[in-house]
Amino acid sequence: MNDLKEYKFIMDISKIMILIILLFYGDKTIFFLVACFIFLLMIFRAIKINSRKRFRMYLVFMYVILLIGQLTFFARNLFYYEYISFFYFINKIVAIFLLSLPYLIERFITISKYTEFYFPSVQEINTLSFSELKSAINSVQYKLKGIDKIKNSISVDKLEEIAKDFPRHSSIKYINNGSLTEEYFKVANDSLKDPYIYIIISNTGSAASELISIFTKKQYNHASLAFDLDLETIISYNGGEKIYPPGLNREMIEFFNKKKDSSIIVYKLKASQQQKKQLIAKVKEINEEGSAYNMLGLVLRSSYKPNIMFCSQFVYKMLKYVDLEYFSKKDGQVKPTDLVELDYHRKLEFCYEIFLNE
């Protein structure tokens, strides 16, 4: 049990055998499954690192980006050439190298912080009390539930969807301009008699929101803003549903219905007519200047340009712009559920909830 050298030797031989099998017998499906398994394993290892939460988040984000790159490469290049081709094996070698990158990244980044898992000795096991053992079992069960949630959230299909959509995004320049029409602003101005603005949080089931849920550990992972109760003016920062570029876009409730339990919750917040005018004018300004969805900001918690935001960041900044914010937090750190959970002074009023499949 303490003979770690023998254990390490066996593990090294096993890794080499797996690489040989992948080189000569691996097909696209096997490479996809191995990449996803390694991803889940590295996520678990990252969670176990004894370091600050932000550092662990950076590491997890790097694994997500790497997995997207791996799946994109496998889908586009892995079996482009015939089996007997020299380039076929070159592509497979590159694919195998990509599979090993998470381990190289972990070793490079955490070399001074990470301690390898080890098997305890019999003496160490004998010193464990029943309560400590029970606590350890509960901890393992909790982690396994978390891994199971990650597995369900990051299916191969969803990762392929994210990988295909990723090139549409930009976190350094504006790519969306003028997606909101004059007709939209006419409807928004018609709502000025309504003394409220409306904050919407939603559980959509989109590939992106399911990925975000891994980090936020929340059910509702999208936030929107509207100027009327019927949500004819609902807007937010989103992916544009492949119709418009990612950034500030008008939304339609039916686009939120991407899984069986999709739902939205609508709250209202008292606002003066002048505040609503200022908000509409600000939205129009962003629409004309340009915008982009802040994909990197989900982890980095900052924006390269003012109009590069993610959904909850946008809603909070709009509230703050007209002095309607009811909690204090850096805009890049605001999660969709913060808009409700941090309403300690009960400024929001519940309006209604919609279950989109009922």
TrEMBL record:
Parts of the chain that traverse the membrane: 30-47, 59-79, 85-105
Keyword field: Membrane, Transmembrane, Transmembrane helix
Alphabetized SUPFAM superfamilies for the sequence: Cysteine proteinases (SSF54001)
InterPro entries assigned: Papain-like_cys_pep_sf (IPR038765)
Keyword Transmembrane helix attributed: yes
Keyword Nucleus: no
Name of this chain's protein: Permuted papain-like amidase enzyme, YaeF/YiiX, C92 family
Species of the source: Clostridium grantii DSM 8605
